[in-house]
Amino acid sequence: MEDCIFCKIINGDIPSYTVYEDDVVKAFLDISQVTPGHTLVIPKHHVANLFEYDDNLAKEVLSRLPKIARAIQASDPSIVGMNVMNNNGEVAYQSVFHSHWHLIPRYADDDDFS
Ligand code: 5GP
Ligand code: ZN
Questions:
Q1: Can you give the pLDDT at residue 1?
Q2: Mind telling me the catalytic residues?
Q3: Coil, strand or helix at 20
Q4: What pTM was computed for the model?
Q5: What is the residue range of 94's domain?
Q6: Structurally, how many domains does the chain consist of?
Q7: How many whole angstroms from 21 Cα to the centroid of ligand 1?
Q8: What digits encode the pLDDT tens for the residues 9-55?
């Protein structure tokens, strides 16, 4: 997708800090971190949101979330929890229309951001 900022991140046209990458997904730090380590996991195949996933893409992307979550957790012993968030549609606060899964580390002493 030509005008998609996350496709540009996948292609390297926009810089990002990569947390994890393979042939199916890229995980990179969110530019505006809710908590330190806030990571976005995106499929390399452009889909706007959850409504466009087929079974295979769902299996491939979702099955990777636990190990990426564990890798983030392993990077800092003070991470004691994690919120996983996925917004679908403008009304649901989706602002970038390339599907992404927010992994938001939670720390014992962090502030409530809700
Ligand atoms: P949404 O509101 O669609 O669920 O989340 C979009 C997320 O993308 C936001 O948390 C925002 O900070 C992040 N974001 C937007 N543009 C960029 C960018 O160019 N680079 C990175 N790393 N994150 C971005
Ligand atoms: Zn895209």
A1: 75
A2: 100
A3: strand
A4: 0.96
A5: 5-107
A6: 1
A7: 17
A8: 999 999 999 999 999 999 999 999 999 999 999 999 999 999 999 99
